[in-house]
Amino acid sequence: MDRADTFLIHGSNGDILVNLSTGAIISILREDDVEDDTAYTNILKFDIVQIKADHPDYMGGMDILDCGFWYREYEPAIKGWRS
User: Fold this and answer.
1) For residue 66, what is the DSSP state?
2) Does 83 reside within a domain?
3) How far apart are CA 34 and CA 25, in angstroms?
4) Is residue 26 in a domain?
């Protein structure tokens, strides 16, 4: 997979490398001091349509709170959390 086909999502429990076409998680990158090493493992995929619509400059990486994703059910992005 070409690096141009992926993007990075940042969270407090590590970074998530995501497939740009499908929203599937490619890998979860964690720091050694992360307490919950199961965080993010239940995310099925990210909402690429929502991410592209809300964040046209998403390729540089973004915070997980800015992204909708499927986890048991759909979890929408938390709009305005930076305000």
Assistant:
1) G
2) no
3) 19
4) yes
Tokens of 58: 């998403």
What tokens appear for 54 in the block?
Answer: 């809300």
Q: What DSSP character marks residue 64?
A: G
Phi, then psi, of 63 in degrees rounded to 5: -80, 145
- The SS3 assignment for 46 reads strand
> How many folded domains does the chain comprise?
1
State whether residue 24 is helix, strand or coil.
Answer: coil
Residue 62 belongs to what domain range?
Answer: 3-75
pTM equals 0.82
Determine which helix (DSSP H) or strand (DSSP E) holds 17, and give its type and residue range.
strand 14-19
Q: Which amino acid is at 30?
A: R
Q: Running DSSP on this structure, what letter comes out for residue 58?
A: G
Give tens-digit pLDDT for 47-62: 999 988 888 776 667 8
